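Lecture notes, unit on protein representations.

Consider one protein chain, 290 amino acids long.
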Amino acid sequence: MLGEMKKKYYCYLWILPFFILFFIFQLYPMIYGFFLSLTRWNGFDPTPTIIGFENYLTLAKDRIFWETLWNTVLIWLMIVPLRAFLSLLIASIINSPEIKGKGIYSFFLLLPNITAVVVVAVIFRILLATNGGTINNLLGIIGIAPVKWLESSEFSKISIAIMQTWKATGYFTIIMLAGLQKIPKEIYEAADIDGASKTKRFFRITAPLVKDVTFFVVLMSTIFVFQNVGATMILTNGGPGHSSTNLILYIYNNAFQYSKIGYASSMSYILFMILLFISYFSVKFNREKM
């Protein structure tokens, strides 16, 4: 085996740049991040103070940590199921034979996703402003009092969910559309002969046959929700209080506002374990169902 490797050493030279970059930008930061989670460090002292698992024990008693984790779960519940359903529904409409110019629709669907997060968040701040906001002006026309979309604990999470759903639904619609185009047309033709309505075709044929694509959309959408920091920071800045602060924003605040690099690193590893747990059992569940 060693002789074969020596003969084909040039093959390993070709893949060497990948492993160098992977070690520098992925593996080393992960290992160093875990080391920092075992320390107390403000980012400025020359040497971090090793404190073992004290940061993790502090996390267990941190009320704000649990509140922000719960906020993240609530935002997930508001975004992911709706986003997956809308993506499939819109993709089904675009995929129908009656719709022409699918490429044009795909372009406009991708626009929100490629628009900078800062731009999207600023636009939604204008739309959802309590005084003079476009949404409240429209509600006023039909006699509904102004809603404090960004200034109340009840609506701040809903505002984030609305913005995130709008921004990424188009991207996931394109993925769904790719899955739909793999379904043989003969299946729909047979359903037409049997007299199946469009609603029955959607729930009895389309949805079951793109189960694996839907699973991918849900999984990726979940990761997006747990990693969302910029939009929340600009739209509500986690307020009022901590009512719309998600876990990743709390990590950011601890690292760069409170200079608790070690504590933020420990939360990052908890978040990593949560996403690893979700991904592992989601993939396992999906394989058992297929």
